[in-house]
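ARCHIVE CARD
Drawer: 12
Card no.: 0347
Subject: one protein chain, sequence and derived structure
Cross-reference: see card 0346
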Amino acid sequence: MKSSTVVIGVACASLAVFVFLLAEVTHFGRLWWLDRSVNEIMSQQSAWIVLLSRGLHYLFSAISLILISIILALVLWRRIGRRRAVLIAGPMLLGAGVNQLVKLLVARPRPVNAMIALSDSAFPSGHTSATAIFFGIMCMVLLPRLTPGLPRAVMISASAFLVALVGFSRLALHVHWLTDVLAGLALGGTVISIGLLVQGFFPPARPVKASSGRKPPGRR
């Protein structure tokens, strides 16, 4: 019960941040100075940072991560059960659908100094949200199989680092404003929290034990 309360709290907080950023971008514009300032700061980048960011752009695209999650769900189908396997690919598809819908509704232009030509809307960052959801799924699947302590800490730290790195790369390539990236993180946090709550209704499948062939005591 306590863990469910924490997850619900994270889901509500993430959703609140996303709605706040959505309102700021579409109506108020009070964070425009922050977007513009970060974009100007990120203009001074080393060549290796740009090269790394370009690699991350293609490696962690939403399509690539969706395909990987579907393959992973199919591989683990029998081991973890049908319903829990669906919960691996489901959050990725949900996140991608919400992301594209918001992009169509907001239609926010990307920075004019973008290093990669992209035709869709800037808000929210699809790469950031997809990466956050994907590594959230990885933690959801792998953490229960890891021993408590250092292995779990390494898994969580590595996942958080890669999500932050992808978010940074979107700014380094000038394909997103800072609020786009933050909204992508908030969307990812919301979807993963929903996935964790839904997963709680489907306990892991237990293998059926073979009968030993012995009769109960007192019966012949």
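Annotation on reverse: The radius of gyration is 21 Å. DSSP finds nine helices and no strands in the chain.
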